[in-house]
Amino acid sequence: MRSGDLLNRICYQTLKGGVSMGGGYGAGFALIVVLFILLIIVGAAWL
Predict the structure, then answer these.
(1) pTM metric for this prediction
(2) What parts of the sequence cross the membrane (predicted)?
(3) Structural domains in the chain (count)
(4) Is the dihedral of CA 35, 40, 44, 47 positive or negative?
(5) Cα(8)–Cα(23) distance, rounded to whole angstroms?
(6) Residue pair 7/37 in contact by the 8 Å Cβ criterion
(7) Which structural domain, as residue segments, surrounds residue 9?
(8) Cβ 21 vs Cβ 32: under 8 Å
(9) CB atoms near residue 32 (< 10 Å)
(10) Do 33 and 26 touch, CB atoms closer than 8 A?
(11) Three-state SS for 25?
(12) Helix pair 2-21, 23-46: axis angle to 10 deg
C-alpha cells in the first residue's frame, strides 16, 4: 500500500511538473520518468 501511495504521489508531482514545464516535451519527460519509476518498483518487487 505504501509503494502504491508513493507511486501516486510521484505520478502527481511528475505530471504537475510536466504541465508547468509546458508543451509536449514536459508531458513526454513526465511519461518517461513515470515508466522508469514503474520499472524500478516492478524490478524491486521481483527481487
Answers:
(1) 0.44
(2) 25-46
(3) 1
(4) positive
(5) 22
(6) yes
(7) 2-46
(8) no
(9) 12
(10) no
(11) helix
(12) 160
Instruction: Summarize pLDDT for 1-47 with one digit per residue, the tens.
Output: 466 687 777 767 666 655 555 555 666 777 788 889 989 988 888 77
Which residue type does 35 have?
Answer: L
Which three cell numbers, joined as nine digits, stand for 20?
508547468
Q: How many CB atoms lie within 10 A of CB 26?
A: 17
Contact in structure between 18 and 29 (CB atoms under 8 Å): yes
Amino acid in the structure at residue 31? L
Quote the cell numbers at residue 43: 524490478
Positive/negative CA dihedral, 31, 34, 40, 44: negative
The C-alpha cell of 32 is what?
518517461
What number of H helices and E strands is found in the chain?
A: 2, 0
